[in-house]
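Postdoc handover notes: sequence design on the structure in folder B. Input tokens:
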């Protein structure tokens, strides 16, 4: 399996074995953005049922122990890949949903195309929960095969 998310952290919340979470300290070496990755300093990362299930070993997309939990996050762009055409800028607040767990870390190296700007009027803690909830809602709507005029309970 190709590594989709590379955690370049000072600290991360790591599942070392099922039922056991540990704060992992890394060397603190901060990598600049690589050829195709932006470096983001995480401010908030949500904790959802998938994180709890994965930590217990009960998640249907179960990673093997040694993984960092978390899918969605909000943070500040610290660096961008050279020549990035993402429209993002260093210092900008962004949100993202990772394609694999790994958001419960202080820094992430991610593809810029998974990042979206967060309006300054929206608190980072609130923004951290919106993207994954929206993805989940869209998935449920697609599974429901709704047609024009159908109702949805919210």
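Designed sequence:
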């Amino acid at each position: 399996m190709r590594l989709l998310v590379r955690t370049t952290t000072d600290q991360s919340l790591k599942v070392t074995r099922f039922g056991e979470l540990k704060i992992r300290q890394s060397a603190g070496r901060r990598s600049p953005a690589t050829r195709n990755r932006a470096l983001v300093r995480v401010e908030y990362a949500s904790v959802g049922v998938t994180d709890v299930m994965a930590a217990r070993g009960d998640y249907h997309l179960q990673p093997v122990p040694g993984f960092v939990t978390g899918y969605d996050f909000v943070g500040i762009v610290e660096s961008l890949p050279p020549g990035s055409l993402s429209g993002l800028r260093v210092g900008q607040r962004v949100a993202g949903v990772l394609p694999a767990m790994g958001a419960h870390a202080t820094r992430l190296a991610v593809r810029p195309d998974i990042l979206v700007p967060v309006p300054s009027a929206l608190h980072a803690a609130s923004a951290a929960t919106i993207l994954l909830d929206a993805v989940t809602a869209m998935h449920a709507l697609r599974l429901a095969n709704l047609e024009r005029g159908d109702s949805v309970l919210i």
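Context for whoever picks this up: Residues 1-9 have pLDDT under 50 and may be disordered. Don't rerun without checking with the PI first.
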